[in-house]
What does this fold into?
Amino acid sequence: MTTPPVTRRRLLAGAGAASAFAALPAWAQGHTLGGSGHSMQGGAPIRVGFDEVSGMAIDLAVGHGPRVVQGRKGHGIAVNGSVPGPLIRLKEGQTVRLNVTNHLAEDTSIHWHGLLVPFHMDGVPGISFPGIRPGQTFTYEFPVRQAGTYWYHSHSGLQEQQGHYGPLIIDPAGAEPAAYDRDYILLLSEFTPLHPHKIMDRLRKGEGYFNYQQTAWTDDYPLSAEDRRMWAEMRMPATDIADVTGSTYTYLANGRGPKEGLEYLFNPGEQVRLRVINGSAMTFFNLRIPGLAMTVIAADGQNVKPVEVDEFQIGTAETYDVIVEPRGEAYTIVAESMDRSGMALATLASRPGARAPIPPPRKPPLLDMGDMGMNHGDTGAGHSMKGMKMRDTLLLPPDVKIGPGIDMVSMTPVDKLGDPGLGLRDVGHRVLTYRMLSALEPNRDTRTPSRLLELHLTGNMERYMWSFDGEMYSTVRDKPIRFAWNERVRVKLVNNTMMAHPIHLHGMFFTLVNGEDAAHQPRKNIVIVQPGASAQFDLTANEPGDWAFHCHLLYHMHGGMMQTVTVMGPERGA
It folds into this structure.
């Protein structure tokens, strides 16, 4: 399947979008069992790939139907009949009205990930609006205040896993800071034939259910007998990298499996912009193009000073824009899952059908002492942990609630914004880290923060409970994190778990405290907090309302790692 540049794709705009919407009554056909919206019956077959919609008024329809990926069948939720949903292309400075009609038998929603919108347009049921009932239409209307690469997805239940997501591009009001000849979207995600509630059920019964790469006495992992005894005593596998893996997932590029031939055409010597969006539910991808360097020009939709790398890790919900200059016949784009249980693939091709070799999967990475927060000089996997307590709650501050929701406490978590991520520490080529990012345009607010807010990322992996400060969202939904109007705050996230967490703040950008001066700290809305590590960002609380703050691993959020942030309006602020 050859993909034309998105700048040439004006397939649906204005009345065209309305006609696409009108053509979708098939979504409403058929009936679901028990009124849950989870039946395999009914619904038109879901198309692969996406069209484009634009204009001042855009109609979107959410429905369900059967999906087929590389011969594997499952049930999906789609927007305008496709997975991913249509590319929404907007212009900085315009006002847009998005009419979203729900053809499901359950509530739905759309969250505009990374967009600066009034809080009641943010699309989070229970926080910013009640959700969209079956058969109803909700109109989102807001001014477009930014430019860049973003995406949208459901914030209702686990619908995101079923295909309810799509790309969103905002063209700048002025000139682009980077020159390029072609403009492509690479949206990474996953497909599974399992219903997401079944996945959640299996994770709660045994969090290692999908891990087919666990250690055994007959494996070839570089672990000594002492290492193996140590991990066994702690009841923690060194291969516990991802909760849901390629054992059930097929990894997708623009909705297509690795054998389904996604192509991006180019003429040798052209500058090609790739807008990489991680629209997955649970997967960190390590992305590289063998034989071709990538120049990173934007992160989370915000321009950064160009930095050339050979590979980067992209956490769930992050976006990176890169420029490449292919000169050969073909190059393989490899997006390998962090645990290396599978990969999404696409091809940069100088002619239709041209192909480059596909590299074999690399060996799965192993957790080490640093990933367990034991950073006391030697972080090698062979360092003895004898006598160390994995749940020393005396190390936690008094505002962290101690209970069954915490099964691990990192001993000495340190800042790891210079860490390229699991599996990329010893690859022998240039790998992006957060410390390499620098804002292209100076930040508007460079005030010194007036206070420090420390939050601990906590969890019990065996019970599959996830939380902030030891409290799951179900117990704190009425106790929001409060910021005064225009307050400047430094937030420190401390990861007490062995899992990497992509933490997302709705409604605002923050700047990573990554060693850059305050004017050039990179602006983001997602930060990966590595296992047993900490990360800090500076925030100006200038978007009034209630906002979601959560881990963007879908089953972690569903399992409790979520909070509400309340920013007081200027009329009530300090």
Notes: Residues 60 and 265 are 29 Å apart (CA to CA). The chain has a mean pLDDT of 87. The longest helix spans residues 196-205. The helical segments are 15-22, 196-205, 225-234, 473-476, 554-558.
